[in-house]
Every structure is written in structure tokens, then in C-alpha cells.
């Protein structure tokens, strides 16, 4: 059989990392990335890119932990290499603080991040509104640099990238053997997934180079995440809100909330407001599907629905999607050898 042709639809962090994992595990494949938007115009470009997992109620915890561990290990190696600054990946230490002690004082990921420990009384004096906290070091991916680094890696391996709006996966059946759906919130319309819903996030990207530590309120709504050049402060979690226009009242609310955690942010300059729609569902959709029309089949692998936690698990889910693509290739090769008999 000729080299299988694989199309990856979507060019956010999930699409690009999935394409890279497919190239690495199936070198005989011809891989193409198709997307209506590329960086800097993807949802991933709005995200802070912090590796602090979000919990998916419909996915077993040991699976989520594996995805996070694979992602952390992969990015840690890059952060420890000469590529770190180009890839936009760096270690960042800080605090997650709680107004009330959480039921779960040790989250499932506490032994994957570095140096996880309860905060001391002295540290908690920085946060008079909070009575409990956790200190740890994790990784952050700055975007667009990380997406551009992934694109560069893909181009170096011969992957083609085209700007194209795909309105129906079936339209690709005459050009490709396998289609990988990494369309994020786009899957709501593309494959009619009614279990997928947007969680609107508005954030501010500000110039405040003196802020070196991350601070995250345990409610997950207020956070301060320093990047290489800018600090991302947020945020909102608005379910079923599709509005991509920044709201000035929300901007003020975010700024006030973050200044109450870190008063020095009053001096932040050059505030840019960004909005993204997190593609949320009870669990990531990571599975194979066979589409067929009139006896013709198209093999599809879905990898979308990562919600707030896409960066934290992107490499782990990309590896799993690549494994499913390998299964599809084996099925195609089996079918083609049977056809020869």
C-alpha cells in the first residue's frame, strides 16, 4: 500500500502536537495540517499555557495523570535544552491559594510538578484573604512562540500546512485515507457534538516584568501567570457564552481581582485584552470512528474537548491520538492485503 495520507484538521496546540506525534510514530505517513486559523489567531494563543491540570469528570484519574505526566516530561526536557527560549517554555514557581481548606489537599498531579508542598504561615501572610495554600514549580508554554516552534518542527519533517475551512470531514475522503479531528470548539458545528460547549475566557496580557511568581486562586477564576515577556492575568469561566468581543466591565473586574492578590500589578503597562472559547465537555473525545457513504469508508480519529486543560495534557493526548492513527493504518493495510488475495 502507498504511504497513508493523513489530514489533521485544526492548528491549535492539540492539532499541531498531534501532527508531530503522528510524524514521530508513523514516519511512513504523509501528514497535512488543514486549518481555518493558524497562530496567532487560535484559541491556544489566548491561553496562558500553564501546566496545572483541570479535572475531567468523565475520564479516569489515572488516565488524566498519565497524560499530564507525559506532557510535563516532554516540556521539561525542552525547558532544559537550548531550544527553550525559542519554544517559549520555562519553569515558573508560585502559589495556589484557597479561602477555605480544600477537601483534597493533595491533588492527583502533586507528585508530577516539582517541589509540591503546603505553604508556610509566613508565606500565607502575603494573602490575608486566604487561609490555605500550596507552593510548587511547574512549566509554562508561551504562545505564539510554542505554536510557531511546533509549526517549524512540522515543516522540517515535510508536513504541509494549508489554510482551509473544512465544513464536513467527508469532503476530505477523496484526498486522504485518515482524518484527525482537532478542531476544538469548531467540532460543535463540524461533527455536531452537542456534548461540547464553550466556556468563555477573557484575559489581560500585561507588561509587569517584576512579577516572577504565579498566583492562582483555588477557585480557578482569578490567576496571575508570568510569561517570558508578558504576564497573563484573568479571568472568566462563562459556560455557553460564544461572545468573542472583550467586555470592558469584565476587564476592570479582572484587573481589580488580580490587584487584590498582587497589589504591585497596579503599575502594569500596555494592557491587551484577549478572549477565547475553551472547548469543554465531560471528557476529552479521543476515539476512532468510521464514516461511510455508499460503501466508501473514511477513517477518523477525534482528539478535542480539552476545555481549560489543553496545555496540561496536550502531549499525552497527542500520543494517544497517534496510537489510534497507527491502528487505522494497520486496518487499512489489512484491508489492502485482503483486497490483493
Automatic annotation (TrEMBL):
E.C. numbers: 1.4.3.1
Q: Which GO terms describe its cellular component?
A: cytosol; peroxisomal matrix
The protein's predominant localisation is cytoplasm
Domain called FAD dependent oxidoreductase: residue spans: 5-324
Reaction(s) the record says it catalyses: D-aspartate + O2 + H2O = oxaloacetate + H2O2 + NH4(+); D-glutamate + O2 + H2O = 2-oxoglutarate + H2O2 + NH4(+)
**Which is one Pfam family of this protein?**
DAO
InterPro entries according to UniProt: D-amino_acid_oxidase_CS (IPR006181), DAO (IPR023209), FAD-dep_OxRdtase (IPR006076)
Where does the signal peptide begin and end? 1-19
The family assignment reads: Belongs to the DAMOX/DASOX family.
Outline what the protein does.
Selectively catalyzes the oxidative deamination of acidic amino acids. Suppresses the level of D-aspartate in the brain, an amino acid that can act as an agonist for glutamate receptors. Protects the organism from the toxicity of D-amino acids. May also function in the intestine.
Question: What is the name listed in the Swiss-Prot or TrEMBL entry for this protein?
Answer: D-aspartate oxidase
Q: Which organism is it from?
A: Otus sunia (Oriental scops-owl)
